[in-house]
Design a protein that fits this description.
The chain contains twelve helices and 57 strands. It is mostly beta strands. The chain has three domains: about 250 residues, Orthogonal Bundle (Transferase(Phosphotransferase), domain 1), CATH 1.10.510.10; about 250 residues, TolB, C-terminal domain (Neuraminidase); about 280 residues, TolB, C-terminal domain (Neuraminidase, 6 Propeller). Helix 6 crosses helix 8.
């Protein structure tokens, strides 16, 4: 393809190599434009084992590449000097570095297409440089079978010596061509894998894998022949022999597909490891742990096949293959405030997860044949992601809605309302099972949309909610979690064809996953467990087996079922996935000025300040969530509730002597109250047919705000009149829309709450009592949740969709309000959708400081992938 000159860059005072392109290529506009594009991509391929490209030059109708000048002999020179090949402990490190170079190129979509010893330089100290990437093929697109789309210069052409000056490929190249190239078919990265196998075979034996006296004989051997496997040194490890067979598989569908697999197998070879498995010292040492952190799942899966599931004995002794061994590796994600939000694709070839992108939580997708993840557009604040059965779409929750996004492109489609979801699953019949709210049964809705959701289950006595549905492989049955009393809570087994359900186990809080063909995964307080499920008897059988020690529950309220499976058998889990939080004091500019939650103090959710600002109340715990009180002066903590239910959202009485809170101790959430001076003496304020959640206590002590989960009118805000003899209930906002998180103004004349009456959650203020009753003003302009009044009632705060804390001035007259424009104060890490739209995660002190319950990302561990699980 050109003539290479040694030259000197006089500007930078360095020696370079200049490759001048042939005249017929340089004058072809299409070829030249494509070559420029390739050069730009290759310029980003900065790798120590790749000869670099410094520039592209045009001068006097001459086009040239400016390349790194690599001194020393080529690998072809070294092999020519020794007919016996290279020693094993020298050849494998060189092979590993070649594989690293290919891995880096393939990650950029670049195929070398002419890998051979003459294009590889090896210095005496073991440094390796792969050259001639300047003429590589840039893959235009690749489909699911790794088949590259043909384009102008897809395959190299073998010509006679008389034609060589016009084409650019030396005769020796034929010996390293893949069968598909030899047949004139498009080449993809597996052509490089084939060439690597030829090169490694030649390094180990000193002879070519497919020799021939001429081009015809060589191509015939490639297409129909086999290497002389007996030429390999007797001490060649079995995994290396099998690696060569995997690289030189003529059917590229069966050929190794990823260079990371080559790197992994060489790393694990006994020839490179000492008695403890540590890598022998080399110019570029790689630790065992680092290898696993960087290893792609495809490499892991094939490495398992190479070393264990597909052992060399299968080829050399004719014995049956051994059972695949279990292997685990980690995927490190960007920081995330929702560590349980991830899901394996049904085919096990990719994973979707929630993580931060430019300060905003979004969904990311990581294909296991790629080295990095990509952000999925239009997925801001997404939670509980799940896949369609065909793997072409992803469902998730955001902005109080259930949405579906086609991965091929387009915007998310809203399928149903879901103000406080607890998971979803997509059945083969096109329906989606999901939990829309905190105290809700499972609902079923068509993924096509257009029809309202229908209840799939019914809440019974002692049950708070149904959550975390998992559709089983038969597509007709499903598992789900029941939250309620100790007698009712557990994992249940249901059918899409009938309403009845069967309790499987009371251990744990959620049906985390189902691992084909017959293993149910569920949680105990500190472990992920697996147990066999008998489909005929519809029951668990045998002993449960520990998968791993894991802190994946978060809390029983938020639920952090951080485990996912694929139908191919992969299992993914996150061992440190609890929602670690810290209470941080921030001023009006957002500057952190203090912190609640030293090592000896509880981490609290739904924090509320006592009227004197000296004590913080909040919920804390994993399975058994109780209300705790933290004294900010003495930094001491006191447990306030002691029941077996879930005790969470709380409000203070105006004198600070009592605390009202919601609890599931009776089977559904209800409002309770107790004396702060006598913890454990609480009692229920009122009975209700439906679950109720406390919201606020008026300054005069007369009214308690709460919202009710009514299946007919959905969430509605009510006021309880404690001064009336029978604790009369007064409607505040009872509409077909969802209303919640209601707060009294300091003077008790106005109530702020959030509602989705407009189609998204907005903040409104409504008059309360007298002539003010019925008037309503919208405060937010572009969405908002979690309203909170300033102590003097002159401002109303709320959280915008991007997590910003907003402030709006409020001027009240006798029966009307004057509303100012919302002003952004500072960014928070409060999620404005999903669980973030369910309860307040901040409070405001008398002097205008903000106490914010912030998620800490630093403690979130990687996602662990289990290949061939043995539980």
């Amino acid at each position: 393809m050109g003539t290479v000159y040694r030259a000197k860059d006089t500007k930078l005072n360095r020696e370079v190599a200049i490759k001048v392109l042939p005249h017929d290529v340089a004058n072809d506009p299409q070829r030249l434009a494509r070559f420029r594009r390739e050069a730009q991509v290759l310029a980003s391929l900065n790798h120590p084992n790749v000869g670099g490209i410094y520039g592209f030059e045009d001068a006097d109708r001459v086009s040239a590449l400016v390349l790194e000048l690599v001194e020393g002999p080529t690998l072809a020179d070294r092999l020519q000097a020794s007919s016996a090949g290279m020693p094993l402990d020298e050849a494998l490190p060189v092979g590993r570095r070649i594989a690293e170079a290919l891995e880096a190129a393939h990650a950029q979509g670049i195929i070398h297409r002419d890998l051979k010893p003459a294009n590889i330089k090896v210095s005496d100290d073991g440094r390796v440089k792969v050259l001639d990437f300047g003429l590589a093929k840039l893959v235009d697109s690749v489909d699911d079978t790794l088949q590259a789309v043909p384009s102008v210069t897809q395959s190299p052409t073998i010509t006679s010596p008389a034609q060589m000056t016009a084409i650019g490929m030396i005769l020796g190249t034929a010996a390293y061509m893949s069968p598909e190239q030899a047949r004139g078919r498009p080449a993809d990265r597996r052509a490089d894998i084939w060439a690597f196998g030829c090169v490694l075979f030649e390094m180990l034996t000193g002879r070519r894998a497919f020799p021939g006296d001429n081009v015809t004989d060589t191509l015939a051997a490639i297409v129909r022949g086999e290497p002389d496997w007996t030429a390999l040194p007797p001490k060649t490890p079995a995994p290396i022999r099998t690696l060569l067979k995997g690289c030189l598989e003529k059917d590229r569908v069966r050929r190794i597909a990823d260079a990371s697999t080559i790197r992994f197998v060489i790393d694990e070879s006994p020839a490179l490891t000492g008695p403890t498995g540590a890598t022998v010292s080399s110019p570029l040492p790689v630790t065992r742990s680092a290898r696993f952190l960087r290893l792609a799942p495809t490499a892991i899966a094939f490495a398992v096949a190479l070393g264990l599931a597909w052992p060399a004995a299968q080829y050399w002794r004719g014995s049956s293959p051994a059972a695949p061994a279990e292997m685990r590796f980690d995927i490190v994600t960007p920081p995330t405030s929702d560590p349980a939000a991830f899901a394996l694709a049904p085919d096990g070839r990719s994973i979707v997860f929630a993580a931060s992108d430019a300060g905003r939580s979004k969904l990311w997708i990581r294909s296991f044949d790629q080295t990095s993840a990509k952000v999925i557009p239009n997925t801001e604040d997404a939670s509980f992601p799940f896949w369609s059965p065909d793997g072409r779409s992803i469902g998730f929750f955001a902005g109080a809605n259930l949405l579906i996004l086609d991965l091929a492109g387009g915007s998310p489609r809203t399928i149903a309302d879901a103000p406080a979801p607890s998971g979803a699953a997509w059945a083969k019949d096109g329906s989606i099972l999901f939990t829309p709210g905190v105290a809700s049964p499972l609902f079923r809705v068509s993924a096509a949309g257009g029809t309202p959701p229908e209840p799939l289950t019914q809440l019974s006595a002692g049950v708070t909610t149904h959550a975390y549905p998992i559709v089983l492989p038969d597509g007709r049955h499903y598992l789900y979690s029941v939250v309620g009393t100790p007698e009712t809570a557990g994992v249940y087994y249901g059918s899409l064809d009938q309403r009845s359900a069967k309790k499987l186990t009371g251990v744990g809080i959620g049906a985390a996953a189902f691992a084909p063909p017959d293993r149910m995964l569920f949680f105990q307080p500190d472990r992920l467990m697996a147990q066999r499920f008998d489909f005929e008897r519809e029951t668990l059988i045998g002993e449960s087996v520990s998968v791993t020690a894991i802190n994946a529950l978060g809390t029983a309220i938020t639920g952090g079922l951080a485990v996912s499976t694929s139908r191919t058998g992969l299992v993914a889990y996150r061992a440190q996935s609890a929602r670690h939080r810290s209470l941080v004091w921030r001023d009006r500019a957002g500057t952190a000025i203090g912190r609640v939650g030293e090592a000896s103090v509880k981490t609290l959710e739904y924090p509320t300040l006592s009227p004197d600002g000296q004590v913080v109340a909040g919920s804390s715990g994993d399975q058994n969530v109780d209300i705790w009180l933290v004294d900010l002066t003495r930094k001491s903590e006191t447990r306030f509730t002691f029941d077996a239910g879930l005790d969470s959202i709380n409000v203070w009485s105006p004198d600070g002597r009592r605390l009202a809170f919601d609890s599931s101790r009776s089977g559904r959430f209800g409002v309770y109250a107790g004396s702060v001076d006598r913890p454990g003496t609480d009692e229920r304020l009122f009975d209700d047919e439906y679950s109720t959640v406390v919201q606020d206590w008026s300054r005069d002590g007369r009214f308690v705000l709460f919202y009710e989960n009514n299946p007919t009118s959905r969430r509605d805000v009510w006021a309880l009149d404690l001064a009336s003899p029978d604790h009369k209930r007064l409607p505040v906002a009872v509409t077909p829309a969802e209303e919640s998180i209601a707060k009294f103004s300091p003077d008790g004349r106005w109530i702020a709450y959030q509602t989705n009456a407009s189609g998204r959650l907005e903040i409104v203020v409504q008059g309360f009592g007298g002539d003010r009753q019925g008037g309503r003003w919208q405060i937010s302009k572009d969405g908002g949740v979690q309203p909170h009044w300033s102590h003097d009632g002159k401002e109303l705060y709320f959280i915008a969709p991007d997590g910003a804390l907003m402030a709006t001035t409020i001027t009240a007259a006798a029966d009307t309000l004057s509303i100012g424009a919302p002003v952004r104060l500072f960014s928070t890490r409060i999620n404005s959708g999903g669980l973030g739209a369910n309860a307040l995660e901040y409070d405001v002190s008398r002097d205008g400081k903000f106490l914010i319950n912030e998620v800490v990302d630093a403690d979130v561990g990687p996602i662990t992938i289990v290949v061939n699980p043995k539980f």
